[in-house]
Amino acid sequence: MNFQHIMGAVIIIALVIIIGIYAGKKVNSASDFASAGRRASLFMVMGALIGTLVGGASTIGTAQLAFSYGFSAWWFTLGGGLGLIVMAVFYIKPVYNAKAITIPGIISLEYGEKAGFTLAVLSSVGSFITIVSQIISGVALITAVISLSPFISTTVVVMIMMVYVLLGGALGASYVGMFKTIILYIFVGYCGILAIHFHGGINAFLNSVYLPSDRFFNLLARGSARDIGAGISLILGVITTQAYISAVISAKTEKTAKIAAYISGILIPVIGIAGIFVGLYMKLNYPDIQASMALPLFIIKKIPPLIGGMMLCTLLIAVVGTGAGIALGMSNILTKDIIMKLSKKNFDDRGFLLISRLVLVLIFLVTAVFSFGNLGGVILNYSFLSMGLRGAAGIVPFSATLFMKGKISSNCAIASMIAGVVLTLAGKLILPSSIDPLFLGLLGSIVVLIFNQKPSYGLDQ
User: Fold this and answer.
1) What pTM value is reported for the model?
2) Where do runs of H (alpha helix) occur along 36-149?
3) Which residues are within 8 A (CB) of 169 and not within 5 positions of it... i.e. 6 or more apart?
4) Considering only CA atoms, which of 103, 396, 397 is closest in space to residue 249?
5) Per-residue pLDDT tens for 331-382?
6) Average pLDDT over residues 87-95
């Protein structure tokens, strides 16, 4: 990076800090911090949804996987978009009108505190993996452009995540998310258009002998079971991730939440297409690079330095935004559904706000420790696993809570959660890589639910 790159990056960082401080000044209560006081506008909700879902996996990770498998990399953003649309159709109305603001809290109302506590613990595992994957994306980005050690790079990413969300909470995620979404779509979209232009058009990609269509232009290039499973993981993971539930709950009306989810669901897959063409271009022209560097190196080599610096910093903010948004949702769950219930104390609004922020700091510190060093692997693999674990743990009992009230026992709901996670992890170890382990976890969760429903005698029991 030269001086112009650095200046471009400084401009973006300064804007994010200003927006974060502005949002922080508007936080006057725990409700403002956790759910924006239910006064978020359409664009604020979209900013929180897209700003959290479109991060390192949707940009750097998509270009990385496209470098090796082409359009198979589209499943993350395509599945994420479909997840928001499914949420808008079936889940937003009952969730928005629920008497709790977290998924474990909603489940507790139906199945008791033990069930809510169990889901809080299990879903936190999936969220933890997502945050780690975003840190890995950020480290890959920083080390691609600056000669820093993984330790320092990890520290930088985690510190920016703290600034992103620690002051403003849900309001900060909404305001910064709006800003990040606009410039990210402009910059990554521009990179996709440039990649197509530099290579001579879309037909030049399609006709390239170095890009066999059965691998690079096939949505199921990694195997039908694996790629379809990845898409399902995203759909279910989005529905059962607290960060996205918090975003729709923050809307000032139910209608606003639904419209925001629909529009976001349509827009999110678009940025995946841009990342795919960048990955394909780099595969053809720089085949010997490390795959995770495809998008960062494209920007360094093909974009004017000042704009390139702004783009690179925007990618870093994208990584930060997703990690910070997921951490905020995780903090809400840990604070409200675990710490508060275990402590048996009645905290006032100021005490709740303080604990939420302390939990956020702890989350960042722990994920940083797990991210130090090079974990390797494909960034999207971590993201798919994270979404799959959250979906396997929560989708069946969460759906039963909303749509099958009174028909499932508490013990059955808990067993369903545990079976989903255990079998998903077991599937990761024993199933061939061509089959997504989510199928095994989801099947186990459903089977437990079917065979352990409350008995019905035709009378109200």
Assistant:
1) 0.80
2) 42-53, 62-69, 75-86, 92-96, 103-111, 113-145
3) 23, 27, 32, 33, 34, 36, 328, 356
4) 103
5) 878 887 778 777 766 766 677 777 877 888 888 888 888 776 555 444 556 6
6) 94
